[in-house]
Amino acid sequence: MSSERVVDLLRTAYADEIETVMNYQTNAIVLDGVRAEEIKESLKQDVQEELGHAEQLGQRLKQLDARPPGSVEFTARQESLQPPEDSTDVLAVIDGVLDAEEDAIATYRDLIDAAEAADDPVTEDLAVTLLSDEEAHRTEFRGFQKEYRRE
Predict the structure, then answer these.
(1) Rounded to 5°, angle at Cα 63 from 60 and 64
(2) Span 88-145, pLDDT tens digits
(3) How far apart are CA 60 and CA 70, in angstroms?
(4) Distance between CA 70 and CA 48 in Å, rounded?
(5) What is the spatial distance between Cα 87 and Cα 66, in angstroms, rounded to a whole number?
(6) CB 34 within 8 A of CB 87
(7) What three-state secondary structure class fits 129?
(8) Which of 37, 50, 65, 140 is the most exposed place for a label (fewest CB within 10 A)?
């Protein structure tokens, strides 16, 4: 059986993934301009991946006789990922995505440590896999950020 810390981190990661899905989807809808198209397409693709992460986390919680949080238990935290007032401010969205990815990476690193301490190799393996995905997202959006800051 896994520790309470592992379950808490799984629940946090689940809620963060669901919030990320909402914010990525919203930003993919509201961004305007020719220069926004590549970012919008990337966000649309990432929505499906992040939703898959939430599904995996939710299933792991169920396997541990816990449950993912519902909407009443949800507290939004991704201020920097809110849609910008100026719908052409692509850099604001890129910066918000990077903040969300950094937060996810930190959560998955904490989950890896907690799962290892709890002798829970299944959760540890899941966290390593999800960490890899989030680091790949971060790399992609760092590239976008470099390009937009150069201009």
Answers:
(1) 90
(2) 999 999 999 999 999 999 999 999 999 999 999 999 999 999 999 999 999 999 999 9
(3) 16
(4) 20
(5) 40
(6) no
(7) helix
(8) 65
Written as six digits, the tokens of 91 are 């850099």
3-state secondary structure of 69: coil
DSSP 145: H
Mind listing the domains of the chain with CATH numbers? 4-150 (1.20.1260.10)
Structure tokens at 85: 């007032």
Closest by CA to 30, choosing from 81, 100, 101, is 81
Q: 85, 72, 69, 81: which is closest to 9 by C-alpha?
A: 69
Residue 15 near residue 74, CB atoms below 8 Å: yes
pTM, entire model: 0.95
